[in-house]
Amino acid sequence: MTDSKKRGKQSICFDNPPVIVGWASVAGKKESEGPLGRYFDITSDSALFSSENWEEAESKMQMSAVRRAIEKANVKKEDIDYIVAGDLLGQLMATSFGIKNLNIALFGVYGACSTMGESAALASMLIDGGFAKRTIALTSSHFATAEKEFRFPLGYGSQRPLSATTTVTGSGAIILSSRELAVENCDDKKQYVSITGITTGKIVDYGIKDPNNMGAAMAPAAYDLIKTHADDFNTDFSEYDRVITGDLGVVGRDILMNMLSSDRIDISKIYMDCGIEIYNSDKQDTHSGGSGCGCAAITLCGLVMDKLMKGIWKKVLFVPTGALMSTVSYHEGNSIPGIAHGIVLQSAL
How many angstroms separate the CA atoms of 246 and 222, rounded? Predict the structure, then answer.
C-alpha cells in the first residue's frame, strides 16, 4: 500500500474511489410502516416473504436485494467480479442459501450488525486495488431468525427489557464500480456517490454481558471508531453533513455522546442512528430502537443514498456497529465485545 492511501493506523483514503452504481433495500412489514418506509425498494406484508420458514425468508430477501440493485445499475450478474456478504445466522446461512444460484465469487464475512460497513469497506478495497471492476456489498437480518438464534423462540413469549432493541427484518445491497466504468455509463449531469475512505474498527470490550442491552455493548466501539477516524483524517467533522451509527438505539446513543464529550468531540448537531430513525418510538413497540445487520443496510440503501444522490448531503461518515457474541459465548459467562466499521460517502456531479 502506498503512503498516499494510508491514514494513521486504521484508515485508508482511496486513490481510485469506487462509485455506487446500484443499491437496493428490502424491508419487512414493521420497517415499511416506520418513518423510513417510503425509501425502501421492496416491502412485504408478511415476514415470511412467501417462504416456508424464517431462514428461507431471509435468504429470499438477500436475493431480492441483489436482483433489484443489479437492475438499477443496469448491469448483468456476469459483470460482477465479487460479492462480499454476511448475516447473523450460523455459518452465514442466509447468505449461503440466498445467493448460491448467482454463481459469483464470494467473500463471506461476519461483523455482526456492523457487516454492511465491513462488506462495503472490503468491496471498495478490491476496486481501489485494481482487483475488481465491479463488486457487491450485501447483508441481511430478520427479527424471527435472530430471536430464535440469540435469545428465545418467539413462541416462548419472553418479556423484553426497555434497553432491548428490535432486530430489523431487511436486506441491503450496493453495487460498486470503478470510476472509469461508472463515468462511461453516467450522464454528466447526474449525481453519483463514491466511497472515498474507510476506517477499520478493532474489537472493544467493556465487559458488558447483557444480551438485551446491545447499545451499551456497541457504544464503546463506535466511540473508538469515531475518535480514531477524527485522528487519522485530522478532522473535527465540520466538513461532514452526518455521522451515522448503525444500531446503538437510545441507550447506546446516550453512552456514545457522553464518551465523545470526554474528548471534546461534539457531533450532536450532525449525528443520527439508524436504529432510532427506522421505527416510530411513539407508535411502534420497539423499545430502545432497531438493530441487526439489516438496520444499517436498509437505512443506507434507502434514506442515506436518497439524501446523497439529491445533493442534500455531500459527505457522510457511516458507522455500522456490531456485538460480537455467539449463541454459546454469553451462556458461558463471556462478555459481549463490540466492533464498528466506518466508510466515508461523498456525493459529486
Answer: 9
Pairing mode, strands 19-27 and 170-177 = antiparallel
Same fold for the pair 6-181 and 189-348: yes
The CATH number of 189-348, from 3.30.70.360, 3.40.47.40, 3.30.565.10, 3.40.1160.10, is 3.40.47.40
- CA gap 176, 116 in Å, rounded: 13
Contact predicate 195/35, CB 8 Å: no
* CATH code of domain 6-181: 3.40.47.40
Which residue(s) pair with 13 in the sheet? 197
158, containing H or E segment: none
Tens digits of residue pLDDT in 29-66: 999 999 999 999 999 988 888 888 989 999 999 999 99
pLDDT score of 156: 47
d(CA 47, CA 49) in angstroms, rounded, equals 6
Q: Give dist(CA 275, CA 78) in Å, integer.
A: 35
pTM above threshold 0.90: yes
d(CA 288, CA 285): 9
Counting other chains too, the contacts that 181-190 makes at CB distance below 8 Å and 24 or more residues apart are 181/21, 181/133, 181/134, 182/19, 182/21, 185/21, 185/74, 186/19, 188/349, 189/349, 190/349
Report yes or no: 217 and 324 within 8 Å, Cβ to Cβ.
no
Residues in a beta bridge with 198:
12, 343
Beta strand 321-323 with 166-167 is unpaired
180: alpha, beta or left? (left if phi > 0; alpha if psi -120 to 50): alpha
What contacts 271, CB < 8 A, 6 or more positions away? Answer: 242, 243, 244, 245, 253, 257
* Whole-number Cα distances in Å, 182 to 17, 79, 175, 194: 11, 13, 11, 10
In the DSSP assignment, the letter for residue 222 is H
Domain extents in the chain? 6-181, 189-348
